[in-house]
Design a protein that fits this description.
With 256 residues, the chain is α+β, with helices and mostly antiparallel strands. It contains six helices and 14 strands.
Length: 256
Amino acid sequence: MRRSLTESLELSYFSHIEVVESTGSTNADLIARAGDPNTDHAVLLAEAQEQGRGRHARTWVSPPRTQIAMSLLVRLPGITPDSLGWLPLLTGVAVVDALRATAAVPANLKWPNDVLIDGRKVAGILAEFAAGGPVPTVVVGTGVNVGLTEAELPVPHATSLVLAGAREIDRTELVLSMLTEFARRMTAWQAAGWDTADLAAAYRERCATLGAQVRAELPGGKTLIGIATDIDDAGRLLIGDQAVAAGDVTHLRANY
């Protein structure tokens, strides 16, 4: 990356920022370090990721220096179990705000935490719990398509910042913006005693799923089709009056 992140960041929120040339999975690497109680608010980035993990154990590989592959480890003292599910949603809000401000692209969210530009996926987020210790510990990973060409996209419905005509594609600048937004949101959330009211309002404002007709492929093979009406207090998607905690959601009629 163009500039040293450790020199560029003016954020006291992060205790350690590391950039490696290549790794299997930044999430897996930080989970392996979670047993050290001194590892907190740590950031790991890879120029290339060989075994990136998505939702439902899907794997993906990125060409070197064409994506942002970043994971953060945070310990969340005093958080309630119902609020834990909001961390990946908070991360999605931070990524959307960073891409809007720095790359000048019309990013928004598809529930739960895919980032879209004009209906095509530009970023995904995966949060994983790290076992052990008295304080809830979560590693949240973010992958952003930056310089991928059309031929390099992992799936046809994906896009990249280059393809979307982004104003800024320097990965260092984008990472700085994402970390700044994440730190700001996390600091405010913790100061509010993990109350989700403000966070939920911010998420709803940026979520393109709300108001759209969607199809949800649920665990166990069940399919639910209906209008996405709201996000409940636990971060679940309401389709009609049914709460969906996990599943693949497809927009059938978008509200943008």
